[in-house]
Design goal:
The protein is an alpha+beta fold. It is built from three helices and ten strands.
């Protein structure tokens, strides 16, 4: 009666790697890794602006169910989810910076909203980004959605059901 199942999700129009359990025991262990945040998740994304240093940022996510948008709050308020995002610049040209983002917590639209809240929205993000820049890239390159790619999962050390992937990294090449 068991069917293999996906353990995590990606925002719409986000490419990249997903984890799935082929057996019930594997699925349960993977789910516990995600719940405990012991799997490390890394993304690549070009953002607007010149980012020159590695940082870890935090905040609180407030979701509007009607608009399917989130806002990042700097201070704690009732029932808001705490978010943690780390990033480091990989390359840049002064106008855009390619970031490697380590998703420490994993909430809806977290990377997109968190980076936009500090003035570095994702290229192509029509929900949280800069419309004029996105339109320019749409005309010039046919860009129709945010450029966000879940490229790397790092498994925790384990002696359980998933010991054959203990400490391994899995990479999804860019589309």
């Amino acid at each position: 009666t068991f069917r293999p199942s996906v353990c995590n999700r990606l925002d719409r129009n986000t490419s990249g790697i997903l984890a799935a359990g082929k057996t019930l025991a594997a699925l349960q262990e993977l789910n516990s890794f995600f719940k405990e945040r012991s799997i490390e998740k890394y993304y690549l994304c070009p953002v607007l602006g010149n980012v020159t240093e590695e940082k870890q940022i935090s905040g609180y996510l407030q979701k509007d169910e009607k608009t399917n948008r989130v806002q990042v709050q700097r201070t704690e308020k009732d029932n808001l989810a705490r978010i943690e995002t780390a990033y480091r610049p990989v390359a840049g040209n002064g106008n855009l910076t390619l970031l490697e983002v380590h998703l420490i917590t994993g909430k809806t639209h977290q990377i997109r909203a968190h980076l936009a809240s500090i003035g570095h929205p994702l290229l192509g993000d029509y929900k949280y980004g800069k419309p004029s820049v996105n339109e320019q890239y749409k005309k010039q390159y046919g860009l129709t959605s945010q450029l966000l790619h879940a490229y790397r999962l790092k498994m925790p050390k384990t002696e359980g059901t998933l010991q054959n992937v203990s400490g391994r990294e899995f990479i999804a090449p860019l589309p």
